[in-house]
Design goal:
By secondary structure, the chain is α+β, with helices and mostly antiparallel strands. The protein is 49% helix and 11% strand. The protein is globular, with a radius of gyration of 21 Å. This is DsbA family protein. InterPro entries: DSBA-like_thioredoxin_dom, Thioredoxin-like_sf.
Length: 238
């Protein structure tokens, strides 16, 4: 069963929600039957940090709150992250445009390393004070993923995977995404936000049980009734 997740690597709740979902999956007996597919989303697609703006400055200006309120807000989020083993360092976190980071995720997905790319980018942004809009940072992450760095460099120097990112964002509008993280299970049920682990377990279990029942109750339809040119335990028919 497929779980699609619209997410932005600039979003701390997406990182926390990832952990909550992962913990939920470890407690479910059918976890190996779940296919995770990350989808791009940008919280602020027009943003570019050209003046070395801090996260507190960014939040203060973007949300119309004081620096003290911004710090208080992030303290609460950091505590949520700490509960699931994340060290969210908002003091050093660098606000950045995430478009190229999303392109890198799509490139990693083409090599079967999408989930790991998400993880490394979250860690780089929230725990390692790295600018995820910086090409050199993205190439370091590509190298840590054991991706071909020359190929990654060519991707980032071009507009490759840009359409895939834009399509994900377009698709988010079609499925009703109003904020991230946004988890869609089997295109039937949605869960918004960094919900508690038990909420993930309940939602995934319900979706999986319905998906499995549908697979088992829908017999395959043959396109013809000719049994020639087949083999079974008794031999082959020609």
């Amino acid at each position: 069963m497929k779980i699609e997740i619209w997410s932005d690597v600039m979003c701390p709740f997406c990182y926390i929600g990832k952990r909550h979902m992962e913990q939920a999956l470890t407690e479910l007996p059918f976890k190996d039957s779940i296919d995770i597919n990350w989808k791009s989303y940008q919280l602020n697609p027009a943003y570019h940090n050209e003046d070395g703006e801090s996260l507190y400055d960014y939040l203060s200006k973007n949300k119309g709150i004081s620096l003290e309120q911004a710090k208080q807000m992030t303290t609460q989020v950091a505590a949520m992250g700490s509960n699931v083993g994340l060290n969210l360092d908002f003091e050093t976190s660098i606000p950045a445009n995430s478009f190229d980071a999303h392109r890198l995720i799509h490139f990693a997905a083409s090599k079967g390393k999408q989930d790991l790319a998400e993880e490394y980018l979250f860690k780089a942004h929230f725990e390692e004070a790295k600018n995820i809009a910086d090409t050199n940072v993205l190439l370091e992450i590509a190298s840590s993923l054991d991706l071909d760095t020359e190929e990654a460099k060519a991707v980032l120097a071009s507009d490759k995977f840009a359409e895939e990112v834009r399509f994900d964002i377009y698709e988010s509008q079609q499925v009703g995404v109003r904020g991230v993280p946004f988890f869609v299970m089997d295109r039937k049920y949605a869960l918004s936000g960094a919900q508690p682990v038990d909420a993930f377990k309940q939602a995934i279990t319900q979706s999986y049980n319905e998906w499995k029942a549908a697979q088992e109750s829908t017999p395959l339809k043959s396109l013809n009734t000719n049994s020639d040119n087949t083999c079974d335990e008794n031999g082959c028919e020609i």
